[in-house]
Design a protein that fits this description.
The chain is α/β, with parallel strands linked by helices. The chain is built from 9 helices and 9 strands.
Length: 236
């Protein structure tokens, strides 16, 4: 094959990959998925998030809930990953070995920010599958940027939705402040029960405090938050 022919082949391959992972194809796949799952409710929403986005870590054969290199046998997050994997398999009523068959339907890292508008208070939503240090710095800048763009000058809620499992990162997000108040109106985990299952009763430090944050509602589940978002607005 000539260099020119090889170049055209590479370009065609790149275009094919772009089509597969492009926005149009994702939209088509999501439309097909939800057409077959029409009974999505706030209570079941977390399950659909995991079915679409969660994946099996090939190096451990377990559902991914933490960085792969820290979840290898012999490291602390291996046992936690085992516990989460078992908890999720039970939640989906499948054998642990079959969990991979009911998740990873459409994997992509959730990075899309959006604003929910309507009669109620506006809400800026930041959806992050995990919370890395660089994203922590982005939170405040996103808030300040949206505040400048809020043409009506009204107050707005700021919600973080995440599937982070690191207790220290979750605690930091719950406690993150701006001026004299909390940065996030709501900190939402796809399902905090999975975090508790991963840590079990042996956690310490931030892991123990996470249980308190869940119990007092500062770290809430997706079902509860969706119930708040879709609740009828009172005009009295």
């Amino acid at each position: 094959m000539t260099a020119a022919g090889h170049g055209r082949g590479s370009d065609q391959a790149a275009e094919a990959i772009a089509r597969v992972f492009g926005a149009d194809n994702r939209a088509r796949l999501l439309t097909r998925y939800f057409a077959a799952n029409v009974s999505v409710t706030p209570a079941s929403a977390w399950q659909h998030v995991y079915r679409l986005l969660l994946w099996i870590d090939r190096t451990t054969a377990l559902a991914h809930c933490y960085e792969s290199d820290k979840a290898q046998p012999g490291r602390a997050w291996y046992q936690r990953s085992l516990a989460f994997h078992d908890w999720l398999a039970q939640a989906f009523a499948v054998a642990p070995a079959d969990l991979g068959d009911v998740i990873d339907w459409l994997f992509r890292e959730a990075k899309v920010d959006l604003a929910i508008l309507g009669d109620r208070q506006r809400t800026l939503v930041s959806a992050k599958w995990s919370i890395r240090a660089d994203r922590e710095e982005q939170f405040l800048s996103d808030f300040e940027a949206y505040a400048r763009l809020e043409s009506a000058g009204r107050d707005f809620a700021y919600t973080l939705i995440t599937n982070e499992f690191d207790a220290a990162r979750l605690k930091a997000a719950c406690e993150r402040r701006r001026q004299n108040g909390l940065l996030f109106t709501h900190v939402v985990h796809i399902n905090p029960e999975g975090v508790l299952a991963a840590y079990g009763e042996s956690g310490r430090g931030a892991a123990l405090q996470i249980r308190t944050l869940i119990e007092n509602g500062r770290l809430m589940d997706l079902t509860t938050w969706l119930g708040i978002v879709i609740a009828p607005v009172s005009h009295e």
